[in-house]
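Researcher: Next sequence.
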Amino acid sequence: MASVQKLIDRMKYWCDVANMGYNQSDRWNFNPAGGNCDCSSLVIHCLQEAGFDTGSAGYTGNLSANLTARGWARLPNNGNPRPGDILLNDAAHVAVYIGGGRLAQASISENGSTAGAPGDQTGGETNTNPYYNFPWDCYLRWTGTNDTDTPTNTIGDETMAIVYGSDQFAGLKYWDGVNPPTGIKSNNHLSTLQQSYKAATGRDLPMLTFNGAWAVVAEQSMVAASQQRDKPIMDRLAQITTKIGQMETKLNQVAHK
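Model: Next structure:
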């Protein structure tokens, strides 16, 4: 049976665990000890591993036609992909949205070209990274039974999230699970929050995209047990957030003297 969750898992495996390089002329070399792929061969291979029929799909240009004939819907790029959505630029690139504000992809060889040695020479030839707009021409979404489905806008038992309102820092908000979100104003701020949460919980801080207000997240994703469990962490991160804001204010004041 085709599985969206397995598609996500296989993309994560080939991008983060296996040693995969980028080479368009050696693109079907799926050797976990040191292989090669390109963006479309990676997605097609993972689709097949996950039980999906890919027809005669062989590159980005014929991926949409083959998949939409086999249970996938071609949807407009609205900035809100769902886990398992295939992010497609018909002429240039394809990736898979794996949830939590991240995507998995094959990017470029170690020398910045379309050909390179087997294996990931840079640590980023195949990768998982925060979601970005390539720009994508469409999202391809499986219309059959979706084993990643969860109640809309939930984040399981997590109590904190980075909520993306846009690609700019002005649209980024940090929500501690209780209080209205505070603005994130720099990469350092975002990185500190992520690292602190990871160190405290062993989990990645969810990074979500929503059209609605932060209150939608609060209303639909919180449960009393997780609030109680993570309260010390929330309190500590709230203190960190406040201190970062105070330091940034002082730095700005010094810079403008």
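Model: Residues 53 and 70 are 7 Å apart (CA to CA). Confidence is low (pLDDT under 50) at residues 150-160, 163-171, 208-229.
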